[in-house]
Amino acid sequence: MNHAFPCGTPALDFLGTLRARRNPVPGEKLGTPELLDDWFVESGMFDGAPAADEADLVAALELRESVYSLVEARIAGRPVDADGAAVAVLNRHAAQAPVVVQLGPDGTRRSGTAAQGLATVAREAVEILGGPDAALLRECGRPECTQVYLDRSRGHRREWCAMRTCGNRVKVSAYRSRHRTGEAPAAAGHA
């Protein structure tokens, strides 16, 4: 598998295809049309590769960065500029035909073009950004990670995109730091 899906929503997982955005050289996971095809299949959006080309890849990267800028604005509490370029890109993609879902002899089949896959991602982003879930948007608390997720935890105190990856890394790092400096671990209770 070339891609990770920690968020549970394709639109937000799509943002994670540019890893560690704040690093001097972020990790691009959509470097080729074939990697875009892989993302569509691995995400479950399509049963088979939609045969993306260079133009589809350019459109995908434009959509991803537009959605990220809108999510970043929501997280920071800034209003989304309805006339802005990012909104125009998102709305243009969302207006296209989505992935084709059909019932076949073996169950559900999903097919279409890369543009239809991007339309599906865009529609989900519109629903998140324009609905009540916008208030649940968070960015992972691990400094090297910039994955965005919806915080549906009780009390809305979730700090990481995924506990098994980023949460575990942060806790291991804190543990090692405490033991390197000689700091005693916090007492769990008295014996």
Radius of gyration: 19 Å
Helix content: 40-55%
Order of helices and strands: HEEHHHEEHEEH
Quickly count the helices: 6
Biggest β-sheet strands, sense, barrel: 2 strands, antiparallel
- Could you say which overall geometry the principal axes of the C-alpha atoms support? globular
Rounded mean pLDDT score: 87
Report the structural category: mainly alpha
**Low-pLDDT windows of residues:** none
Number of strands: 6
Major sheet: order of its strands? 1-2
**Hey, roughly how much beta strand do the residues contain?**
5-15%
Query: How widely separated are the two ends?
Result: 47 Å
Structure notes:
The chain has 191 residues and is mainly alpha-helical. The protein is 44% helix and 10% strand. The strands form 3 sheets. A two-stranded antiparallel ribbon has the order 1-2. The chain is globular, with a radius of gyration of 19 Å. The N and C termini lie far apart (47 Å). The model has no long low-confidence stretch (mean pLDDT 87).
Q: What descriptors fit this protein?
A:
single chain, 191 residues, two-stranded antiparallel sheet, two-stranded antiparallel ribbon, 44% helix
Secondary structure blueprint with pairings:
Layout: H1 10-15, E1 18-19, E2 27-28, H2 33-42, H3 54-76, H4 85-94, E3 100-104, E4 107-111, H5 114-130, E5 137-139, E6 148-150, H6 163-180
Antiparallel strand pairs: 1-2, 3-4, 5-6
Helix pairs in contact: 3-4, 3-5, 4-5
